[in-house]
Amino acid sequence: MQLAQRILEVPPSATLAVNAKAQELKKQGKDIISLAVGEPDFSPPTEVKNALLEAVNEEFFQYLPVPGLTELRQAGANYFKRFYGAEASFEEVMFSNGGKQCLYNLFQVLLNPGDEVLIPAPYWVSYPPMVQLAGAVPKIIPTSLENDFELTLEELERSIGPKTKMLILNSPSNPTGVNYSEKKLVALAKLALEKGLFVISDEVYDQLVYAPSIPVSLSRLWTEYKDQLAIVNALSKSFALTGLRVGFVLTSKNIIKAMTKLQGQSCSNICSIVQRAALVALQGDFNFLDEKRKLLRERRNLAIKLLNNLELVCPRPDGAFYLFPEIKKYFKGEIKDSTSLCNYLLEEAGVALVPGIAFGDDNCVRISYAVSQEVLVQALEKVYHALKKI
Ligand SMILES: Cc1ncc(COP(=O)(O)O)c(C=O)c1O
């Protein structure tokens, strides 16, 4: 059977090759350390786990309203008030299967064929294919290491054309970990909003920002720009609940209605028992995150120190759990890009990293430090020795 054109046009994931190879080497009995993971290594709070168990025991298994239980949507709205002072009603919040489905729904209900979506690179892997699946055109804006991979106002202004419909901002960023200052993020958003663009702010790492840096949310602009703004968040990274698939979005009632229609015709409500756990998480105490942030900040410091030994340059990330160093000085002979370098490191050092090309920058690799300090030291020492051989 011939597959549909739209899926044929979506490029295969650049991370798949490295992952498949890592699996193959593991099967052969090789010792492989993965610094390629995109999830935290801590546990969610006990009360969140208990809420899941209670919901199972109560057989809370029925269909629910498509956008989520009203009390959960209210808890989602309260989140934006509690952390960022944004006044939102439950009707302006909807729950989907992870931040990912929130983004997918937004693109599907907002984009028409030919619309252009501005995506600053390095970007999270799924933005361009999701935009393409909505029939629109991803327009990548390269940023520079000299500016810590932050988009500048000039770069943004230059990129806006007659077909531009939307801008995606992501802070803290996957893959760079960079957290914009409030002044910079708001200035970028306002430039786009005042030119009539729709702005999506992907804030799934907002709870993982390290002091003295503070998280910034574009929900601060909520009251002024309701019709042009969507704030995407999730419990995946902050509560270490990646597999439960809980994402929520703040946007106008009209867009929420459209996304409810779409989700109602595709997968309906997110898992019922998961909604009960999500409610406990959102209504609960976020203080447990202080210790996690401290731990991640220590690992960040350690990883940066180890990278300095390798004379690799990368922005000092203030959030998430990734580093995105430039490695192009090691491109020699057979090693000609980020993919061949990652393949080499996998074979020679037994360490899996993600090639930067997956994030739109072939001169870099992504290193996740969501592993213990011992594993981090072990892995980066192996990388060090392998790179010295090039
Ligand atoms: C920047 C960014 N946005 C969205 C997502 C999707 O998150 P979720 O697992 O909640 O779908 C991820 C996951 O890695 C991410 O890194």
Automatic annotation (TrEMBL):
Q: Name one Pfam family in it.
A: Aminotran_1_2
What are this entry's molecular-function GO terms? pyridoxal phosphate binding; transaminase activity
Name the Gene Ontology biological process terms: amino acid metabolic process
Protein species of origin: Desulfonauticus submarinus
- The identity of this protein, by name, is Aspartate aminotransferase
- UniProt xrefs under Gene3D superfamilies: Aspartate Aminotransferase, domain 1 (3.90.1150.10), Type I PLP-dependent aspartate aminotransferase-like (Major domain) (3.40.640.10)
What protein family is recorded? Belongs to the class-I pyridoxal-phosphate-dependent aminotransferase family.
Q: Where is the Aminotransferase class I/classII large domain?
A: 30-382
Q: Per UniProt, which keywords does this protein have?
A: Aminotransferase, Pyridoxal phosphate, Transferase
Concerning CDD domains, the annotation shows:
AAT_like
Fetch the PANTHER family from UniProt.
ASPARTATE AMINOTRANSFERASE
Q: Give the matching SUPFAM superfamilies.
A: PLP-dependent transferases (SSF53383)
**Cofactor entry:** pyridoxal 5'-phosphate
Q: Which InterPro entries match?
A: Aminotransferase_I/II_large (IPR004839), AspAT/PAT-like (IPR050596), PyrdxlP-dep_Trfase (IPR015424), PyrdxlP-dep_Trfase_major (IPR015421), PyrdxlP-dep_Trfase_small (IPR015422)
